[in-house]
Amino acid sequence: MAGQDGEAGLRFAVLGPVQAWRDGLELELGTPLQRSILAMLLLREGRAVTPLEMIDAVWGQDAPPRALGALRTYVSRLRAVLEPGRSPRTRPELLTSVGRGYALRLPPDVFDLGVFERRVATAEAERRAGDHAGAAETLREALTLWRGEPLAGAVGPYIDNQRGRLVERRIGVVETLMELDLNLGRHADVIPELIALTAEHPLRERLRGQLMLAYYRCGRQADALAVFSDTRRALVEELGIDPGHELAALHQRVLSADPGLAWTALAPPRAAHTADKDDTPERPRTSARPAVPARDTAAAGAEGDDEPVQELPRPAQLPAAVSDFTGRKEAVNRLRTLLTSATGSEGVPVVAVSGIGGVGKTALAVHVAHSVHEVFPDGQLYADLRGYTEEPTAPESVLAAFLRALGLPVDVIPDGLAERAALFRSLLADRSMLVLLDNARDTAQVEHLLPGTAGCAALITSRVKLADLPSARLLDLEVMEPEEALGLFSAVAGPERVAVERAAAMDVVAICGFLPLAVRIVAARLAARPAWTVASLVPRLTDERRRLDEMRIGHLAVNATFALGYGQLDPGQARAFRLLSLPNGPDISLQAAAGVLTLSPMEAEDMLESLVDVSLLEAPAPGRYRFHDLLKLFARRQAEITEDPAAGALALRRLLGFYLASAQAAHRLAYEGSVIADHLVAVPGTGRSFSGAAEAIAWLTVEAETLFAAIGQTAEFVPAPDALLPAADLLLAMEPLLESGAYVREFAARTGAVLAAAERIGDRASELRCRYVLGRVLFGANRLADAAEQFQAALELATATGDRIVTGEILNGLAVVSGRARRHEEALTWFEAALRAYKEIGAAAGEALVASYSARDHLALGDPDAAIAAAERGLAIFSELGSGAGMARARYHLGIVLTRVGRLTEAVVHHAECLDFFRAGGQKVWEQRVCCRLAETFIAAERYRDAVRHAEQALTLSREIGHPYGEALSLTVLGRALAGTGSVRRSGDCLRRALEIFTRLGSPEAADLRALLKMDQVSD
């Protein structure tokens, strides 16, 4: 079907790999997650799917925090693939939005599953009409649409379920085809096909029966009987059951050479369009399925009258419920639903709860098991499988205990695992029991311990995610919510004591990482010491080196719980666990972890995912990993014990090297034409690459916390004299983040820390970089004198050391400081020095920067022609370099100049273009500035309402990023715009607030405002 040469239009396929074609050419459908979303939409056959349904289908319980945004991105990409020529302003015709969800609207003949189902329906209609040959031919045509495993290349819980459904659907159709062929007398022809099918599906009794019948009709009675023997052996070994009634009855008929098994020719198909209903001869009824005599229940009852029925025991083995169980409402409700919703229907509910040691899996499972005991009236079985001890409980031992609990004498319990499992399932048949398997090591330990019939259920706890356990529903248990953890602490320590020190109690549970075991231990220690206060616990727990030692009471210890999981790791996993705990960042990306571990990204992913599987690492989002706080402390302690300190320091240097190389690439793209990135210190290893400036800045934003943490950690320890410069260079490479305005405090703190370390060890190169970055930070806060002091100090260092990496930028900074202080002649002198510095190193982008920034000083000195020429020259150079960031800044300055000379329409165009660029890049400092300047332009054009709108946007942005100078500028422009609309009172309020801020900052604009407030049109 899909993808064949010459086929016009779109075609879609799921009966094999998930694929799509247009006019015979295969389309690129993107990542497995994107293919999964397309597959779900296809399988819903035009019905709408909500975003929540999609997230649950694709990610299940492991949906990342930003799943909704990722989903919308995938939908947008699919729309672009399916309708490449559609304008963004045109509504999609295929992948449409329906309410809050999405639907894929397709013609009926373009989807292979739809074509398959229609052909199967046609075959069924032909079969009912007596046209068995036509039905068989139609089914064979339908089966040609299958191209391998269905939904290959797609992932997620929904896909896994649908894949199983489609596989079952196919084999069901194959069985129907075999029956048709047998009815048509093709028994000799189907034997090779049935041999292959039974080898592929050895437990399908219908296929086995069809093969027996085919052999029998070919006169091969012995082969038919051998098939039954093989089937019985396979069912007993694999499932612990005997063949079903139909196959057993067929076996008896073959043994007795029943004449009814012989083939009888079928009547010709009915001509429904010519024959009257009453005239239609009755069609002979033949079938490959032998008739099965009904059980004589009355006789069976009579036979049993002489023997009293012995009722099996009803075990109640659950541990005592936790009396102070607290919180977990959502998890409790979900487990209750999963365990009870399928009771009485086909299948056994199996639920596996996983999570970090100490997270409360057993307490939750026992609590839920007690709460559903009425749903399982025949009893509850419990076993501690001791999966994380040196000697886990063997499944054979668990089954022996269960069988004894069910009333079997020891001497009748079989020896083998398979036999015990089969007997266990037999005893639970037609009963309603709950089996709780606690502390499982892996799937192999529990797979033989599960009930086999509907009415029962199994609940499993394990640190491992038992994803390979067939039909199991998985619940990954997280740490408690803060209020839940506080409730547990209060229940154990005493509500009265906690109520009077609630704030301190919240600090304590937060230090415990909201881990139930840690909270319980600390609360129990408090309860055992009446003289202690809650507040007295805080300093005892704050010391990270002692924290785990404080979390111990009696036989309970957080450290010991973690040690059980750590002890199960192989050497490679244990090394990764230790080394990944060393960085101070809140989490780590896959690529960064690969650098730490000196592994390829693929190898690193396998390693990290194996740690996630055993709950020693968390994966909060695709490609990102983190430790629970207490596990991180435990891992660091193991690193201190095991790792050579030099090895740990080297791992951190590799991480810093990865971050620097990646930030270097980001800086190069964000500031096209700048040569700073080319002169950063060389580091071993490679970093990330980016497709463009937007992706580079997005990476810097996502990684900001981890980058600042790596810088701070380096500054704190300075493991070697040459180790500080990469941290200082990383601050320099992160310069694009300053434009967002969101990280001013972080830049100030980390730059200060590196500067102090540089002065301490005499690292002048690092000191130079830090003083430049600090100057930029101080200028952004409008602390002009302090900024000038740092720039001057940096310039002296550059002159003394000959390190010219940021000389032009330093001189440019001094010029901008002078200009804002209204020392315009001085500013132009600094700009000329910066221009010479840039020319010496061949930095054309620097020359353009000087031209653009100096334009405002020319204007202030009364030379508009020089101002326009400088601004246009800067824009021309940046345009020639292809620097998007540079062109945006040049347009900003050109727009200011054009506004002042009355060329308002041109000014609006330039400001609008650079505003789009800054908004797209999340550069809120520049976005705020441009909104202010646009408002000024609209005031000059007497478009006061437009001016108010942009000034209010600028005000909102300045407050959002914590920019007092920007806030005062925005209030000033807003006040002027409001005056133009006649809102005199509001105008005066804005101007007075602006005056307060400018005065506090010591800005020269304060004098301008005092004069403006004296004007009659804005006075009260």
Could you explain how this protein is built, in words?
- The chain is mostly helical and 1020 residues long.
- The strands form five sheets. A five-stranded parallel β-sheet has the order 7-8-9-6-10, with helices on both faces. Strands 1-2-3 form a three-stranded antiparallel β-sheet, with no helix packed on it. The chain has a three-stranded antiparallel β-sheet with strand order 13-15-14.
- A hairpin with a 2-residue loop joins β4 (95-98) and β5 (101-104).
- α7 (187-200) runs antiparallel to α8 (205-217) and α33 packs antiparallel against α34.
Secondary structure topology:
Elements lengths: L9 E4 L5 E4 L2 E2 L5 H12 L7 H9 L7 H16 L12 E4 L2 E4 L7 H17 L3 H12 L13 H27 L3 H14 L4 H13 L3 H19 L5 H11 L41 H7 L25 H12 L9 E5 L6 H11 L8 E5 L10 H11 L11 H12 L5 E7 L2 H4 L10 E6 L9 E5 L5 H12 L1 H5 L2 H10 L4 H12 L6 H9 L1 H7 L1 E2 L2 E2 H9 L4 H10 L7 E2 H8 L3 H13 L4 E4 L2 E3 L2 H14 L2 H26 L22 H25 L6 H10 L10 H18 L2 H17 L3 H18 L5 H14 L3 H18 L2 H17 L3 H18 L2 H17 L3 H17 L3 H17 L3 H17 L3 H18 L2 H18 L3 H9 L7
Parallel strand pairs: 6-9, 6-10, 7-8, 8-9
Antiparallel strand pairs: 1-2, 2-3, 4-5, 11-12, 13-15, 14-15
